[in-house]
Design brief:
Layout lengths: L1 E2 L2 H15 L1 H5 L4 E5 L6 E4 L5 E3 L1 H11 L6 E6 L2 H13 L4 E5 L2 H11 L4 E6 L9 H7 L5 E7 L1 H11 L14 H4 L10 H17 L2 E2 L5 E3 L5 E9 L2 H10 L13
Parallel strand pairs: 1-3, 2-5, 2-7, 5-6, 7-8
Antiparallel strand pairs: 3-4, 8-11, 9-11, 10-11
Helix pairs in contact: 1-3, 1-10, 5-6
Length: 260
Amino acid sequence: MKVGAWSENKHVALSRYIDSARMARAKWPYASFIDLFSGPGRVMNRDSKTISDGGVLAAWRISEKGGAPFNEIYIGDADAGSVEACATRLRSAGANVRACVGTASVTVDWVLDALPKGLHFAFLDPFNIEHLDFEIIRKLSARPNIDILIHFSVMDVQRNIDGDFNLASSRLDAAAPGWRNNLRLDAVPKHELVGAYLKYWETLVTDLTKMQVAQSKPLFVNMNKGPLYRLIHLARHPLATKLWNDAAIPTSRQQSLPGF
């Protein structure tokens, strides 16, 4: 799967967090990693042509290296070939894999039906905000001992929020149901529209899932400093939140753009 150079930083942040949580994870008899947008398990930098591990493979390797490997890896993707390739790569690396083909809004039910009691970590890394159905988050949050790391596409919101506001349906509706009825965008400066949408989404998360949004929400940008996405961590246990805040890309390297 071809990606931009910034994808590597996302996987670095993911790996730092998983490694920092190894002692907490080791205390549990069972721990799982869930990736419903797994892709084929390998990515290629479209500029340098360098091939490296995708998120789920990087997560597995760092958990094993840290001495607290996940007991099971659950993967899903809408593309059958990607699921097969990713499962093969994970198994070759020594992981115990359970795989399912389908969109994340469907495979989330399969995961929850199969998931035993334990400590769980879900990584939601969709291509765009349109696929980040809020129901996926709500269903996963029903598990008491779970934290979730989300790729939240700032770029997609920025592109669509203004034009979609008065349409009968919007590509942003699934991620933040009710946003058009609850936001007065006509009273919000254009450069703050994305921030208003994100704030509303965070309110939904905290109200409906009772999970905490971590303070550290690193913003990743492209080569022209244009905003791409944030990594947003959700958890109930304060230790998980602290570990993410400490492990996410250091504040000095995070981008800070008005309205994002």
